[in-house]
Write a structure and sequence with these properties.
binds FE2/S2 (inorganic) cluster, 9% helix, three-stranded antiparallel sheet, 2 helices, Rieske Iron-sulfur Protein, mainly beta
């Protein structure tokens, strides 16, 4: 049996950048030279959750345009490709073609006004095994790091 790799710090963000409950922050981190899209949100109880922004159904970003990450009731994360719904608190898919599967969860630590986002070791190992998938996302786009919070209400649904 092989031990999992250590967690990898993939992003450090000002906690103030995180929008209130009901909105999602989409950022692009860099991991081992590849773009790694992330979604981070604050949920009820002030918990911060983070996921790799790839739908488990077809390994595409939940929102191809960055326009919408939550359903209209703001109760679930939504994949705009085929409409899968995911619970924000644990990333589990509760409806859609990947029901029962889950988003890849990150470890997010809020520490002295910063959000430290870690790729868990087991997830890093899993993504290395899916390297072609990560590479398919293309090279890192530096401009995305400066993108502000994504407010679904300011954009048209995807
Ligand atoms: S790609 Fe997300 S539901 Fe099909």
């Amino acid at each position: 049996m092989t031990a999992a790799s250590a967690p990898v710090l993939v992003a450090v963000l000002p906690a103030a950048q995180l929008p209130p409950v009901g909105q999602v922050l989409a950022v692009e981190a860099t991991w081992e030279g590849h773009a790694l899209p992330l979604v981070i949100l604050r949920w009820f109880g002030r918990q911060v959750r983070g996921y790799v922004n790839l739908c488990p159904h077809m390994a595409v970003p939940l929102s191809r345009t960055g326009a919408r990450f939550l359903d209209r009731e703001r109760r679930h994360l939504v994949c705009t490709t085929h409409g899968a719904l995911f619970r924000p608190e644990d990333g589990r898919c509760v409806s859609g073609p990947c029901a029962g599967d889950h988003l890849d969860a990150l470890e997010v630590v809020e520490f002295f006004g910063q959000l430290q986002v870690f790729l868990p070791g087991a997830l890093a190992d899993s993504l290395r095994g899916r390297r072609a998938l990560v590479t398919a996302l293309g090279p890192r786009s530096p401009a995305l790091d400066d993108r502000g919070p994504v407010d679904p209400d300011e954009r048209k649904p995807g």
